[in-house]
């Protein structure tokens, strides 16, 4: 009798059927049902693999259940466990990994969100290179910071990145990209929490309540996931009491026996510093220098100096900046005309729509560009591009 409840039980019974007549029936329908997408050879290979799985004795199913669903891991009384050199026959460890990954793609593997952490930094770098336009500095900083943090066996503190730049330059896009490549469920992962200042914390009179709720949610998420991601949009509008509440979770870890927050990642998204970043880009253009010559060090230094100037903004004067808890200030450059055209192209492709160069030019010309004398940078970045292509639908 199957001891694996729900989907796990169904999966075992289904795969077991492939070893006998089930495999024959599936073989008769396979190539046709595949519709040519897989191809006969690949289909037959999967059929052979699953047929081998169906032939496994109960001992190996218990081993599989232990690895995939964390069931049956306790040794039965009087039955010796697998020897150090023991491995699955026929199917092998590779097939076990494939089956585990396939099951985890549509179901939770454990009671926490850890099973669905993928940390695909290679995919993150590739997608940022292909889809994040005009942001060589931000791409470089984000990839290096995330990769270095994930590769560190014992980080001293949580990773804290602060994104700065005009609206529409890609700050939210990169945050979503990070979430989608580190977690199988992206922003919907139980390990990812997003907070929008004016949406989640709108009333100053309720800040004490907001603070308690925020602290509780961060603690619970860290306890649930070994690698949580917290995104704070419109960070410049966060009340100082909320910033003080967040601070302990990002400080250097020195509290033995308590919850460990060192594997947490914090992203702050802000329009602060946008004018300074734009001035640097404009100065390079006026000097006839390519924007790709703008270095991480030069922009970050200018950005830090602006945030240290006297201002009424609570984020700029928070302990996060004063105590150097932010690891990297990530500048997002203003977007130029050809970057807007690339965004328009991506919007057409995302909706499966054909486009022409003339259509891309027309979309770009609909945007407002500044400064007035040269009309170099898009005032809205790439925001509203997806809505503007509606004008070109039949």
From TrEMBL:
One GO CC term, this protein: nuclear envelope
The keyword Signal is assigned to this record: yes
GO function terms (MF aspect): ATP binding; ATP hydrolysis activity
InterPro entries found in the cross-reference section: ClpA/B, P-loop_NTPase, TOR1A_C, Torsin
Keywords, in A-Z order: Signal
Signal as UniProt keyword: yes
Highest taxon listed in the record's lineage: Eukaryota
Protein's name in the database: Torsin family 3 member A
Organism: Falco tinnunculus (Common kestrel)
């Amino acid at each position: 009798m199957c001891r694996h409840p729900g989907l796990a039980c169904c999966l075992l019974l289904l795969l077991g059927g492939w070893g006998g007549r089930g495999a024959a029936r599936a073989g008769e329908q396979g190539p046709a049902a595949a519709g040519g997408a897989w191809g006969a050879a690949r289909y037959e290979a999967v059929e052979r693999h699953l047929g081998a799985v169906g032939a496994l004795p109960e001992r190996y199913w218990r081993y599989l259940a232990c690895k995939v669903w964390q069931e049956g891991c306790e040794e039965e009384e009087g039955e010796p466990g697998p020897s150090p050199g023991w491995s699955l026959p026929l199917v092998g460890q590779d097939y076990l990994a494939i089956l585990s990954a396939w099951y985890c793609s549509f179901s939770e593997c454990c009671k926490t969100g850890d099973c669905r952490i993928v940390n695909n930094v290679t995919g993150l770098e590739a997608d940022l290179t292909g889809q994040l336009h005009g942001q060589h500095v931000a791409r470089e900083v984000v990839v290096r910071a995330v990769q270095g943090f994930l590769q560190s066996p014992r980080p001293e503190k949580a990773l804290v990145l602060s994104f700065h730049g005009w609206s529409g330059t890609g700050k939210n896009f990169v945050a979503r990209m990070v979430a989608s490549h580190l977690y199988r469920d992206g922003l919907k992962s139980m390990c990812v929490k997003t907070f929008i200042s004016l949406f989640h914390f709108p009333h100053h009179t309720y800040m004490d309540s907001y603070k308690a709720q925020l602290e509780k949610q961060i603690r619970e998420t860290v306890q649930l996931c070994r690698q949580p991601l917290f995104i704070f949009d419109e960070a410049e509008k966060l009340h100082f009491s909320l910033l003080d509440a967040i601070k302990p979770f990002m400080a250097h870890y020195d509290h033995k026996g308590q919850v460990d927050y060192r594997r947490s990642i914090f992203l702050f998204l802000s329009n602060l510093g946008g004018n300074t970043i734009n001035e640097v880009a404009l100065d390079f253009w006026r000097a006839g220098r390519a924007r790709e010559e703008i270095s991480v060090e030069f922009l970050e230094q200018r950005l830090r100096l602006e945030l240290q100037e006297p201002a009424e903004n609570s984020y700029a004067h928070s302990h996060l900046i004063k105590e150097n808890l932010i690891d990297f200030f990530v500048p997002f450059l203003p977007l130029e005309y050809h970057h807007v055209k690339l965004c328009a192209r991506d919007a057409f492709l995302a909706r499966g729509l054909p486009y022409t160069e003339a259509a891309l030019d027309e979309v770009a010309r609909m945007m407002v560009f500044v400064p007035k004398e040269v009309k170099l940078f898009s005032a809205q970045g790439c925001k509203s591009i997806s809505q503007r292509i509606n004008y070109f639908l039949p």
